[in-house]
Design brief:
5 helices, Rossmann fold, alpha/beta, globular
Length: about 130
């Protein structure tokens, strides 16, 4: 039992070093994702427009960007080009309500289809951050 608790603490301390930018214009979604991720040991930040995301990624490094496809000022796939690699290490995960879509030449690391289950969100972030 003590070993399991230690392992859980070690895993959470690794997550404390993972910063995630949640980019979505739906305040309920950003707040929910942030709460889920923070409770699981991740650092989070929120952008509700593409312009805000571009500004934040220009001044700060993030390990993961969760990007909604439908933003008020830009398509999320187009935003992938604007935010670049953020130091060459940012994992980009597209959030979409569409089962199929054109990627416009952008290459996200993963797609999450709405509605997103909390365990699915945590699983994909855990998988992708272990790879880097």
């Amino acid at each position: 039992m003590a070993d399991e608790l230690l392992l859980e603490k070690e895993n959470n301390s690794d997550k404390n070093n993972v910063s995630i930018l949640i980019i979505d214009d739906d305040e309920n979604i950003t707040r929910t994702f942030a709460r889920i991720l923070q409770k699981n040991g991740y650092q989070t930040d929120i952008a509700q427009t593409a312009a805000e995301a571009i500004q934040k990624t220009a001044s700060q490094s993030y390990d993961v960007a969760l990007v909604d496809v439908c933003l008020p000022d830009m398509n999320g796939m187009d935003l992938l080009f604007k935010i670049g690699n953020n130091g060459g290490k940012m994992i980009k995960i597209i959030i979409t309500g569409f089962a199929s879509m054109s990627n416009n030449g952008a290459h996200p690391d993963a797609y999450l289809l709405k509605p997103i289950k909390p365990q699915e969100l945590l699983s994909i972030i855990s998988q992708k951050t272990k790879v880097r």
